[in-house]
Amino acid sequence: MKRTLMLLILALLVMASIPAQAARKDCSELKQEIAAKIDAKGVTQYTLDIVSADVSAEGKVVGSCDGGTQRIVYQRIDAEPAAAVAKAD
Description:
89 residues; alpha+beta; 3-stranded antiparallel sheet; 51% helix; elongated
């Protein structure tokens, strides 16, 4: 009886650790996935930067990777100011 209980507890512990390992995603892989989604929406001028989670970055955080130690920050680049300058000339 004790042996069965110990095996059951061990199996539960192993199964509980699987989602934690699956959640740890490589930053470059996640960045490519996010870029593909943004490109599919027709956005062409943007940046995706990988920054440390403890650093404040300009833009919108769109992903977290390496177990939460890194973040992917999206920033759209507006071409409008250049067009306004061209019209002014």
